[in-house]
Design goal:
The complex is a heterodimer of chains A (about 190) and B (about 280). Chain A has one domain: Fe-S hydro-lyase, tartrate dehydratase beta-type, catalytic domain (fumarase, Alpha-Beta Barrel), CATH 3.20.130.10. By secondary structure, chain A is α/β, with parallel strands linked by helices. Chain A has helices spanning about 15, 35-45, 90-95, 110-115, 130-135, 175-180; strands at about 5-10, 25-35, 60, 100-105, 120-125, 135-145, 155-165. Chain B folds into 2 domains: about 1-20 and about 65-145, Dihydrodipicolinate Reductase, domain 2, CATH 3.30.360; about 150-275, no CATH class. Chain B has 8 helices and 10 strands. In chain B, the strands form 3 sheets. In chain B, strands 4-2-5-10 form a 4-stranded mixed sheet. A 4-stranded mixed sheet of chain B has the order 6-9-7-8. Chain B starts with a strand and ends with a strand. Chains A and B meet through helix 5 and helix 6 of A and helix 3 and helix 5 of B. Chain A: Its EC number is 4.2.1.2. Chain A: InterPro entries: Fe-S_hydro-lyase_TtdB-typ_cat (IPR004647), Fe-S_hydroAse_TtdB_cat_sf (IPR036660). Chain A: Belongs to the class-I fumarase family.
């Protein structure tokens, strides 16, 4: 299986355009964590005309709420959570320059359209492999919303973090295509 | 009357919470290994192999397999000749959860109120079902139930004319809609019959049975097997990335119901199907 090595954030414009649904990638660089509560707070701040605690331009958000780290560890278990719960907030963040999201599961058509419009990308990581994925996280820094505990925004340094491209600017949907290939019944 | 001490329940529950999160069940590991041999998609096999590696890392490093260490759900069978000494059964279980999650570096995933949503900071309260049974023993079954699969679960009040075909259709639709969200390959827990609330409980209870074990009633066992085939024909595959393994097992529990009713509940479980059990 060919795995493309990709640097994040997406400061090089050509990188996202080179990605296609179904690509296996290894991401290295820095990303931010945010899930339900942090998304809600970010969008509330934008609605009030306030500045976000992080500049999302070209950045990648990982939908994760890690377990606490054991002494000596960088992070606890840290796999992806279900992305669809962030759908309501995602188009607004893409408009603010967000370029990538890592999670698991289906996105709404509204989000897929916003991914195409904003030249962004949605990656799936393996749900329920948090112990394995934590090994690819090299450092963790608390950035904002500390009161949210596991749901706070953290900056992660990752190395060869494995994902599958589900939706890219070309508009295809890898979940639909890959499942159709193995379906043995009427849809 | 046999006595069981509060403090012994606390330490047992603490252990169950940690083992459920660190140690994949042997039944599930065997199902992973079997699926990794038979799965027809390359990426599907890769996902299964990574889940096997993940389980090994979690167990060795005493790190949770998944960051969602779940709602702690208990089914307790309390023998009527067994007396709890030193405190209440409910408080003992919650104290065990508190200790298990704090000392085990597990995530706190419970909010105090569904609308105002403040984290309780110790993963309590847990969900506790108590059944009074014969004998003098205290049996505790625990599952760490993750949010992703629970969110995609569903209950429908079908009626008798819907029949077994209606039941199958509802189950398949629920699994189809869940797709990758519920972390397939799934264990699909099904309750058929009872009433509105007992049907959901039947579905939950079915998930405590070992993966790979068929129902003792041959007709129900046949329905389980048929559903395994049709769910795997959906093509969803491991993590929804396409493949022939969408479910590791289907478990059905049935109960008598009203002449007007045919309730069906589908409680989905992620691939780890975390459940542990102890007898005191």
């Amino acid at each position: 299986m060919v795995q493309k090595k990709i640097s994040v954030p997406f400061n090089d414009e050509g990188t996202i355009k080179s990605l296609q649904a179904g690509d296996q990638v290894l991401l290295s660089g820095t990303i931010f964590t945010a899930r339900d509560a942090a998304h809600r707070r970010m969008v509330e701040q934008l609605e009030k005309g306030e500045k976000l605690p992080v500049d999302l331009t070209n950045q990648v958000i990982y939908y994760v709420g890690p377990t606490p780290a054991r002494p000596g560890d960088v992070i606890g278990s840290a796999g992806p959570t279900t992305s669809s719960r962030m759908d309501k907030y995602t188009p607004c963040l893409l408009e603010k320059g967000l370029k990538g999201m890592i999670g698991k599961g289906y996105r709404s058509q509204v989000v897929i359209d916003a991914i195409v419009k904003n030249d962004a990308v949605y990656f799936a990581a393996i749900g329920g492999s948090g112990a394995l994925l934590a090994k690819r996280i090299k450092s963790v820094e608390l950035v904002a919303y500390e009161d949210l505990g596991t749901e706070a925004i953290r900056k992660l340094e990752i190395e060869d973090f494995p994902c599958t491209v589900i939706n890219a600017p070309e508009g295809r949907d890898w979940y639909k295509e890959s499942q159709a290939a193995f379906r043995k019944c009427k849809e | 009357m046999r006595e069981v001490y509060y403090k012994d329940i606390v330490s047992k529950v603490k252990l169950l919470c940690q083992e459920a999160n660190y140690d994949l069940g042997q039944d599930v590991m065997m199902a992973f290994e079997q699926a990794a041999r038979t799965e027809s998609s390359d990426i599907g096999r890769e996902v299964l192999n990574q889940l096997i590696d993940n389980a090994a890392i979690a167990s060795e490093n005493r790190v949770p397999m998944c960051q969602d260490t779940g709602v702690s759900v208990f089914i307790v069978k309390l023998g009527q000749e067994c007396h709890i000494t030193g405190g209440s059964l409910y408080e003992a279980i919650n104290e065990g959860v508190r200790k298990g999650y704090e000392e085990g570096y597990l995530r706190y995933s419970i909010v105090d109120n569904p609308l105002t949503r403040k984290n309780t900071g110790d993963n309590t309260p847990s969900v506790i079902h108590v059944e009074i049974v014969g004998g003098d023993q205290l049996e505790i079954q625990m599952t760490a139930k993750g949010g992703g699969a629970e969110n995609m679960s569903a209950l429908k009040m079908l009626t008798p004319s819907d029949g077994v075909e209606g039941v199958k259709k509802f189950i398949l639709n629920t699994v189809k809609q869940a797709g990758p969200n519920a972390c397939p390959p799934l264990v699909v827990g099904i309750g058929i019959g009872g009433n509105f609330e007992s049907c959901a409980y039947l579905a939950k209870k079915s998930l405590f049975k070992p993966v790979g074990e068929r129902h003792s009633n041959p007709e129900i066992a046949k329905l389980e097997e048929e559903l395994i085939q049709s769910i795997n024909a959906l093509g969803i595959g491991p993590q929804g990335l396409g493949g022939s393994t969408t479910t590791l097992d289907v478990k059905i529990e049935v109960a008598p119901c009203h002449i007007a009713a045919l309730p069906v509940a589908v409680n989905l479980n992620c691939h780890a199907s975390r459940h542990k059990h102890a007898v005191l």
